C-alpha cells in the first residue's frame, strides 16, 4: 500500500481523560460540600477566583474597548458572585440535598444531552455558536434532568408535578449558560476558557451551566419570597 492509499489515522478520543478528570472534580466538590466549614470556604474562594480570572481573560480578548471591558468585568462579578454566594447560602441554610441536587441536575442535563445528541443527531440549535449542540440533545438533557429531579423529590419530599417541570426548565437554563459562554469564546477567538482541567478546558467551561442554574434559582427564590410564596 503506497502513501496515497494509506488510511488517515483517526484522532484519539479524549473520552477517557474527560471521564477521569470529571470523576476527580466530582469527588473534590462533593467532599468539600459534605465536610463544610473552612474546607468548603477555601474551595468556594478558589473556585470564585478561578472563574473570575477566566472570565476576565475572555473579556480582554473579546473587546479592546476599555469601557466595554469594564462593564463586562462588572457583569462577570455580578454573575459569578451571585452564583457562588447562593452556593454558600444553600450549604449553610438549606438541606444539603438541595445543593447536591442542583449539581446533579446539571450533570444529568449534560449527560442526557451528550448521549441523545450522539445517538439521534439532527438539526443544530445554533451552529455558528456551538456546532455540536442539537435539538435532540436539548430534549435529551431536559428529559434526564426531569427524571433526576423527580427521583430526588420522590426520595426526599415526595413526588410533585413541579419537580419534572422544574428539572426540564432548569435544563434549558443550563444549556443557555453553555451557549452564552460558547458565544463569548467565539467572540474572543478561543477554544476554551482555560486549560486547568484535562479534557474539559477551564473552570468556566465546566461550570458554565451550573453558574446559570444557580443564578436563575437564586432569582426564583427571591421572587417567591417577595411574593409571599412558600
UniProtKB/TrEMBL annotation:
**One Pfam family it belongs to:** CTP_transf_1
Q: Which family does the UniProt entry place this protein in?
A: Belongs to the CDS family.
What keywords sit in the KW lines? Answer: Cell membrane, Lipid biosynthesis, Lipid metabolism, Membrane, Nucleotidyltransferase, Phospholipid biosynthesis, Phospholipid metabolism, Transferase, Transmembrane, Transmembrane helix
Q: What is its EC number?
A: 2.7.7.41
Q: Which domain of life is it from?
A: Bacteria
Q: Give the bilayer topology.
A: Multi-pass membrane protein
| Coiled coil ranges | none
Subcellular location field: Cell membrane
BP GO annotations: CDP-diacylglycerol biosynthetic process
In its UniProt entry, what is this protein called? Answer: Phosphatidate cytidylyltransferase
The record lists the catalysed reaction(s) as: a 1,2-diacyl-sn-glycero-3-phosphate + CTP + H(+) = a CDP-1,2-diacyl-sn-glycerol + diphosphate
Any one GO CC term of this protein is: plasma membrane
An example of a GO molecular function for this protein is: phosphatidate cytidylyltransferase activity
Give a yes or no for keyword Lipid metabolism in this entry: yes
Q: In which pathway does it act?
A: Lipid metabolism; Phospholipid metabolism; CDP-diacylglycerol biosynthesis; CDP-diacylglycerol from sn-glycerol 3-phosphate: step 3/3
Residues spanning the membrane: 20-50, 70-89, 96-115, 135-152, 209-227
Amino acid at each position: 500500500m503506497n502513501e496515497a492509499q494509506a488510511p488517515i489515522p483517526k484522532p484519539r478520543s479524549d473520552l477517557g481523560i474527560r471521564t477521569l478528570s470529571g470523576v476527580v472534580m466530582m469527588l473534590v466538590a462533593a467532599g468539600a460540600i459534605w465536610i463544610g466549614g473552612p474546607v468548603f470556604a477555601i474551595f468556594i474562594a478558589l473556585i470564585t477566583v478561578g472563574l473570575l480570572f477566566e472570565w476576565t481573560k475572555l473579556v480582554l480578548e473579546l473587546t479592546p474597548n476599555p469601557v466595554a471591558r469594564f462593564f463586562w468585568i462588572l457583569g462577570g462579578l455580578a454573575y459569578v458572585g451571585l452564583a457562588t454566594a447562593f452556593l454558600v447560602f444553600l450549604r449553610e441554610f438549606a438541606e444539603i440535598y438541595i445543593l447536591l441536587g442542583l449539581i446533579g441536575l446539571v450533570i444529568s442535563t449534560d449527560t442526557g444531552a451528550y448521549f441523545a445528541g450522539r445517538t439521534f443527531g439532527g438539526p443544530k440549535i445554533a451552529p455558528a455558536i456551538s456546532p455540536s449542540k442539537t435539538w435532540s440533545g436539548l430534549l435529551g438533557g431536559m428529559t434526564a434532568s426531569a427524571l433526576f429531579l423527580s427521583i430526588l423529590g420522590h426520595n426526599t419530599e415526595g413526588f410533585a408535578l413541579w419537580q419534572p417541570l422544574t428539572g426540564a426548565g432548569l435544563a434549558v437554563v443550563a444549556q443557555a449558560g453553555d451557549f452564552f459562554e460558547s458565544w463569548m469564546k467565539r467572540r474572543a477567538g478561543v477554544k476554551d476558557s482555560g486549560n486547568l482541567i484535562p479534557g474539559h478546558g477551564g473552570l468556566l467551561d465546566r461550570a458554565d451551566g451550573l453558574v446559570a442554574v444557580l443564578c436563575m434559582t437564586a432569582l426564583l427564590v427571591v421572587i417567591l419570597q417577595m411574593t409571599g410564596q412558600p
